[in-house]
Amino acid sequence: MTLSRYTILFAVLVLCLPALSSSPATEEPAIRVGLAKVDITPPVGGKMSGYAGRGLSTGVHDPLFARIAYFESGETKVALVSWDVCEFQSSWLRKELENLGISNLLLCSTHTHAGPDLDEPDFPSKEKPWRRTVEERILDAVKKAAAKTFPAFISAAEGNIAIGYNRLKRERDQTATTYFQNPWRIPLGPVDPTVCVIRIDGEEGKTRAVIVCYACHPVVLGPKNTTISADYPGVTMKRIEERLGADALCLFIQGCAGDINPLLMGREAGSEEDFTLVRQAGNLLAKEVEEVLEETKGKSGKSAELKILCDVLTFKNRWNPEQTLKLGVASLLINGEIGIIALPGEPFHVFQKYVRETADLPHACVFGYTDCGYHDWPHYYLPDIRSAAYGGYGASDTTIPEVGAGERLVNQGLIQLYTIRGMLKDKPGRPRTFSPEKSDF
Q: Which pLDDT does position 294 carry in this prediction?
């Protein structure tokens, strides 16, 4: 009789095992990712971008790359490109990808000021300017990434390091003083030291890619430098890739760095002393990323869902209200936990703080300097309202959109994130209210 009871109990446990073993970790992965990397280092002798009135490039200190993370989830296809250029849009590349069925392109400039001017029409030749060569290489790289995807498990975490300072110091007379240099290396105003680290693992648990979003101008190299370089983001990406091993990628995404300069700044015409500072800044950021990766080691990511929404809004020209321009905003939600808002131009740092506080997500960040659709470019800055009132570089000049454009774009991005989550209804409904009679308090 006793043996019979054990036999029955064993049979029940065996029947229950399939149900007990089913968990999110064993569900079919819903996100696939493909990776690629391509050299986009320009020939020497072309115009450089980032500083007005600078001469032609005279050499290459370190190569420039475009790094691609291609995401696929159901019908959603997104090509995320981090490329070592100052600022640039590519409607040609967008159309070519649409022809391949890839309707979402986030083209994120790292914003290095030691890269080529891709608007130069006749370098190295009129028949084929360098811009088209770069676009074709990126297109080919996206094709390769899309053709070789793997089940991806994605997670995120944050680090904290301040390698920059706010270059707009607010004065008591309600104006701002612009500090393009900070020889004292002191905090002149608020910054956002947050480092958003998004980890992409394969089925075997190996980290295949890391996306690093951080806000600080890549201007360690100054206006006298004429040597091609990815500046400090290049150092960070290279070090993380070396840590992760062969075939792994690190994509640096510039955050809301419109008012943030690096504390370490070399101004000796691209001397070895300047590049020592570049390495120091890049390694400081890389070390923080490495510590975040170490802290999250062994924590599995998810492969549940990826959704994206894009909009284009119309704005008045701040200085000529009869003129208008259109600016795009895109929002990406990964696994219902990681929210990304992509903005064009150079947003000020307060926007990424606001997004983290308002998105109501475990992880939220802003990708600045991003071409995310068929839209205009701010040329160049997106200051917040308060900064626009105080003035200073980028807040009262070198910006075209009307005051409040940045807030509108960010809020539209937040609306997109809440819409994706199904939290904003399209019809009015009765709110749930508290009833003392039915309360068990």
A: 97
Span 279-305, average pLDDT: 96
Looking at the structure, tell me whether residues 264 and 344 fall in a common domain.
no
How many CA within 13 A on the CB side of residue 360? 8
> Of 241, 264, 295, which residue sits at a domain end?
295
Q: Please check whether residue 345 lies inside any domain of the structure.
A: yes
* CB environment 295-307: b (16+ within 10 A), e (fewer): ebeeeebbbbbbb
Q: What is the pLDDT of residues 336-349, one digit of tens each?
A: 999 999 999 999 99
User: pTM of the prediction?
Assistant: 0.93
Model confidence pLDDT, tens digit, residues 86-139: 999 999 999 999 999 999 999 999 999 999 999 999 999 999 999 999 999 999
Helix (H, G, I), strand (E, B) or coil at 169: strand
Same domain as 314, residue 210: no
* CA 237 to chain CA centroid, nearest Å: 13
Alpha carbon distance, N-terminus to C-terminus of the chain: 50
Interhelix angle 272-295/231-244, rounded to 10 degrees, is: 40
One-letter amino acid at 246 equals A
Examine residue 438 and state whether it is found in any structural domain, yes or no.
Answer: no
Specify whether 143 is located in the same domain as 251: yes
Report pLDDT for 27.
Answer: 67
Residue identified by tokens 């979003």 is: 213
Tokens of 235: 């150092």
Considering the chain, what is the average pLDDT of its residues? Answer: 93
419-375-234 Cα angle (round to 5): 90
- Say yes or no: 289 and 310 in one domain: no
pLDDT, position 303: 97
Q: How far apart are CA 85 and CA 68, in angstroms?
A: 14
CA distances from 397 to 193, 382, 383 (A): 26, 11, 10
Please tell me the distance from the alpha carbon of residue 29 to that of residue 51, in angstroms, as a whole number. 46
Alpha helices in 159-299 (DSSP H): 231-244, 272-295
Q: What is the pLDDT of residue 20?
A: 35
DSSP state of 398: S
Is 440 among the domain residues? no
Q: Domain residues for 231?
A: 32-295
The partner residues of 302 in beta bridges, in order of sequence, read: 154
